[in-house]
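During the no-cost extension, the postdoctoral fellow (Dr. R.K.) reprocessed legacy sequence entries with the updated structure-token encoder. One reprocessed record is reproduced below for audit purposes.
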Amino acid sequence: DNVLFTEYNEKEDLINTVIGSIAIRQKLERVTTKVDIGLEKTLYKNNQSLNDVNRSIMVDLGGALTERLSFSTSFSYRKEALRGDDTDNTGLALIGDRTSFQVAMETTYALTEISQILVSFAHSDSDRSQDGRVERNKSHRLSLQYSHNLSEFWANSTGLASLIYQNAESDEIDWSTETIEKYDTEIWQLTLGFSKALTELFNFSLQGGVGYSQTRQALDQYAGFPPLFSETESDSFNGVFSGEVNYGGEYLKASLSAYHDIRAGSGTNGAAERSSISLDLSRRMTDKLRLSLVTSCYLNQNERENQEDLDQLTLAIKPGFYYDMGDDFVLSGGYTYT
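Re-encoded structure tokens follow.
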């Protein structure tokens, strides 16, 4: 239903997807390497102009350098046609053709037997085009996290603290109106919290804090004479929080998570307040059959001087199944409603 994700030109269609992938794994004494290469062919019965091939490559490298120091690094490249199926990353039902590249590095160091520090860095670069509009995004994210075992004072609990900095640049070009919009966003977030295991099967975590964002906007319009140029700047303080409850039984696994924070990336045009709640269920029916259901709801909001404010609610429901056929063969399927 509504394969174009539009209010005015809704079209129904039957979509078939053929997926092929190659996975390579190598495990040495201290280092593990993973390589995944995938091709995904999407076939529309009636709207064949939407047929496309998605390509991806992901490389992960990680291991322990010493007893206290471990590391991991990852690289990913994707060339894909978005049809509202990227809600997990953006919280938005985006459409268009996108090419994206991301590299991430993470290091964990054990300060003592009960405390450790984690430092991570990620860089992402993406281009998305749709109906004469081109969106280019570049982002850097640096995170510092500290954890300390509190079991001496509170059984099976860990104290958590994190500091996150993100810089995001976004350019939007609309060839039909000869308009260029530019956004430069800086985001800082500080949170404190804890995690606790109530039983071997049941655990939860909770973190809260404050976030600050500053966005500089520039609008260049070349359609008229003389051309128009304008610049604005805005900032805001916001509360941020995240929480998660997990249950891991023999037959049933469940996870309920929620968060509210500040994000910048594809489709947001600078900083956006994003709220989310997600439920992930997995039920083992037999030794070979497992059923799953993932339901997520996202709310993205921001206020802008040069264009319409963003206030978008997105719902995604994904039931699926996984069947082990034996001899290294599996059969899986799913349905996505967005």
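The longest helix spans residues 87-90. The chain has a mean pLDDT of 85. The remaining legacy entries will be reprocessed before the final report is submitted.
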